[in-house]
Amino acid sequence: MAIKVLMFGWEFPPHISGGLGTACYGLTKGLALNGVDVTFVMPNASGDEDESYVKIVNGSGVEIDPHSSDFFLRSGQTSYIQVNSKLVPYVGLDDYYNVVNQIESGVFTKDDTGEKRKYVFSGKYGPNLMEEVNHYAVIAAEIAKNEDFDLIHAHDWLTYRAGIEAKRISGKPLVVHIHATEFDRSGENYNDIVYGMEKEGMMAADAVCAVSDLTRNIVINKYGIPAEKVFTLHNAVEPNDKVVERRKFVSEKIVTFLGRVTFQKGPDYFVETAKRVLDKDPNVRFVLAGDGDMMPHIIQRVAELGISDRFHFTGFLRGDDINKMFGMSDVYVMPSISEPFGISPLEAMRAKVPVVISKQSGVSEVLTHAIKVDFWDIDATADAIYGLLHYPALSKLFAEEGAAEVNNLKWEHVARKLVKIYEKTLQYE
């Protein structure tokens, strides 16, 4: 009999802000191919999501009886402690959220009419994010009363309270998925509130899935979660139906950074490396594709180093624009300081672009045909880039073998491992 999973996520293709939604799609598709039935709940579905492999439930369409909804609704006003943190994994939005003493929207305030209400979520990462996270938990409790499922799966801290409520209502086991921790986003200057919500979800879970051994160690050592219930579940990449066309509009070689322009991603190391490479070969162009809170600093540093004429800033890219960028690139670089996994190198390799990645990334655990360096070793990174740009045989080797390697990293295989975790959690024989 097929396992039925009630899954909570914040986004799902085609409307995504980054790799989290992409990972959710790949995993649900992989689970379907392994005979698992998934009902995926998201705050605000648009109606054009691909439901070929999954049933989508729109949280904004769920009716709530105000008289029975008491979770986080003890009074007409809820105080949300100020959160200053890069809250969301794998997304292009890096604003700090100041969410203090928000007034409830009125949907769940005292009601004497007896009529059911709906809460309309934005499903975004805006200033009312914490309010939506808590309301999402209320929605989860209502859904858990009516859906038929064997197990609950919640993706990242935004949905942990929803998972906890669904478990409370149903008594079914809870699996939580760690795509990034507060330590990845903020280092040792982590936010206590976000850390507390992450730990709350992990402690309540019957099993915890981490996207790398790197992340698993953080979960065990920084959150105090028992090692026996924490499992490494590496990500994969969706096959690209479109062949990425190699098209260049300039004669120079192009080296690309694609990701959030935040401290975690190491864009400053990319700039310093670019200077080292350009000192040896001025006929190279560097592209920084992304956006984030470090952008003003990065632009200033590029100017200080006198390499502005060799540097291009594209802003945040998605969809076909990413493929176009890979089609122009000769080398892809991910110098992340702390990367739970890192899907973008897989996407680059899939497009036959050689990659240089930091050893401090989860994806380095699964790749053989990628050049791995310490994020802080600018000279080693520059040497790797220079070698790939100037030795065609080396570049061809990493391009061809890398693409073949990545094409074997399938979500179907990841899901097969996840099913075993489900079965263990359900205590199947």
Q: What is the CATH architecture assignment of the largest domain?
A: 3-Layer(aba) Sandwich
Radius of gyration: 22 Å
Range of helix content? 25-40%
Structural class: alpha/beta
Layout of strands and helices, then pairs:
Layout (H helix, E strand, L loop, with lengths): L3 E5 L10 H15 L3 E6 L12 E4 L4 E2 L52 E2 L10 H18 L4 E5 L4 H11 L3 E5 L3 H5 L5 H13 L2 E4 L2 H11 L6 E3 L20 E6 L8 H14 L3 E6 L5 H10 L6 E3 L6 H9 L2 E4 L9 H7 L4 E4 L12 E3 L4 H13 L1 H16 L3 H16 L3
Q: Could you characterize what this model shows?
A:
This protein has 429 residues and is an alpha/beta fold. It folds into 2 domains: 4-236 and 410-426, Rossmann fold; 253-407, Glycogen Phosphorylase B (Rossmann fold, 3-Layer(aba) Sandwich), CATH 3.40.50.2000. It is 37% helix and 14% strand. It is built from 13 helices and 15 strands. The chain has helices at residues 19-33, 129-146, 160-170, 182-186, 192-204, 213-223, 267-280, 295-304, 320-328, 344-350, 378-390, 392-407, 411-426; strands at 4-8, 37-42, 55-58, 63-64, 117-118, 151-155, 174-178, 207-210, 230-232, 253-258, 284-289, 311-313, 331-334, 355-358, 371-373. It has a 7-stranded parallel β-sheet, sandwiched between helices. Strands 12-11-10-13-14-15 form a 6-stranded parallel β-sheet, sandwiched between helices. A two-stranded antiparallel ribbon has the order 4-5. Helix 7 (267-280) links the parallel strand 10 and strand 11 (284-289). Helix 1 (19-33) packs across helix 13, helix 2 (129-146) runs parallel beside helix 3 (160-170) and helix 7 (267-280) packs across helix 11. The longest helix has 18 residues, at 129-146. The protein is elongated, with a radius of gyration of 22 Å.
